[in-house]
Amino acid sequence: MGTDRQINHYERINQVKGYIRLHMDEELNREELARIAGYSVVHFHRIFTAHVGENIIAYVRRVRMERAARQLLAKRVNITEIAFASGYETPASFGKAFKQTFGVSPSEFRELNPMVAGHLIYRQFLYNRKEQIMQPLEIRTLPDMQVLYARATERMTSPAFQTANQEAFGKLMGYLGKQKLMEKMRHCVAIYPDPVEIGKRGAF
């Protein structure tokens, strides 16, 4: 019974996350998102934070900033448009928030080597979250699909494991940037061996 409830929470939160990513250019408020999930605002805040590892405000800010970084690398949209689409009233306020997130201004980020920029995105959004993410174990059979991957080999118990992950992701981001494919990236998958002592092979 408890596992069933957990999976139900997980599905509802995923539904909200999907809605957010489809409506990032619109105003998003907790009341509407809680309604979509079918929870009260207070309950929604607690469940979302427990399952995602950050509260809803931080999550919306993060996915918008992640998209902004990808748009900057794609070099197809000017900074002012990206600022407004990210929910900021002025390019200056967006620039300040962006620099606080990545350590460089939007214009400086745009000129970075794509691999270096990829390291910044990966480090910020995958390694700086401190809360434990609660997700139920789910085994799926996925349809055949084509993927673009980067491989890194390192023991999962080694201190170099995190660096290997970052390097693999950086290679992928570098390629996407050079080929102007950043905006087409939709999912990121990591594949690990069963025994943790075996070197990790990552596909992103």
Structure description:
- This protein has 204 residues and is mainly alpha-helical.
- The protein has 2 domains: 2-111, Orthogonal Bundle (Arc Repressor Mutant, subunit A); 139-204, no CATH class.
- It is 57% helix and 0% strand.
- The protein is built from 9 helices and no strands.
- The chain is globular.
- It starts with a helix and ends in a 26-residue tail after the last helix.
- Residues 127-134 and 196-204 have low confidence and may be disordered.
- How many H/I helices? 9
- CATH level 1 name of the largest domain: Mainly Alpha
The CATH homologous superfamily name of the largest domain equals Homeodomain-like
Number of domains: 2
* Major beta-sheet overview: none
Order of helices and strands: HHHHHHHHH
Number of strands: 0
Helix share bin: 55-70%
Please give the structural blueprint.
Blueprint: H1 2-22, H2 30-37, H3 41-52, H4 56-74, H5 79-85, H6 91-102, H7 106-110, H8 114-127, H9 161-178
Helix pairs in contact: 1-2, 2-3, 4-5, 4-8, 5-6, 8-9
